[in-house]
Recover the amino acids of this structure.
């Protein structure tokens, strides 16, 4: 399925079993190899990268992006997510809804989404602050957030079981 091929959570990796996950040992954190693969897939499938908030708005007005609700059955958006970036492609939103509903059924709570779409300037700032290794306009090293197909889930406050559950899905 298309969404399974291109959707990413910080370059998610599959694990054999639940690891001891820390900030330094996070299997959901992206890697250079994962980023290259993701960008090759996005290019092959023809996904444009947004540079500005106007690009996001134009994709939305053209019916290509959908607005992500502030809350869903198994997720909620961090209050810091800016209104102009609360957009994803429809298949990415469906994937978010499926994963979050599974999470809610299993653990009885919702997880926090910290990022959806990003503009080029937002990505450049994250790169400059060393929060992200992805570039805003560097071909195979661009963030999937610029293609409006990625979302980040906060792991803060999650148990090892919850993190392992999410890891298996990405």
């Amino acid at each position: 399925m298309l969404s399974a091929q291109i959707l990413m959570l910080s370059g998610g990796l599959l694990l054999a079993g639940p690891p001891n996950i820390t900030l330094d040992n996070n299997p959901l954190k992206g890697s250079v190899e994962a980023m290259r693969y993701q960008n090759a897939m996005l290019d092959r499938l023809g996904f444009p990268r947004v540079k500005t908030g106007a690009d996001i708005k134009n994709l939305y007005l053209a019916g290509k992006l959908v607005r992500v609700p502030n809350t869903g059955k198994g997720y909620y958006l961090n209050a810091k997510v800016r209104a102009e970036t609360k957009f994803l492609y429809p298949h990415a939103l469906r994937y978010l809804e499926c994963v979050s509903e599974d999470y809610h059924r299993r653990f009885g709570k919702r997880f926090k989404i910290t990022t959806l779409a990003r503009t080029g300037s937002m990505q450049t700032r994250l790169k400059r602050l060393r929060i992200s290794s992805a570039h805003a306009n560097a071909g195979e090293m661009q963030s999937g957030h610029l293609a409006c197909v990625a979302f980040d889930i906060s792991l803060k406050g999650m148990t090892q079981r919850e993190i392992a559950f999410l890891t298996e899905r990405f």
Summary: The longest helix spans residues 90-107. The chain has one domain: 2-12+23-169.
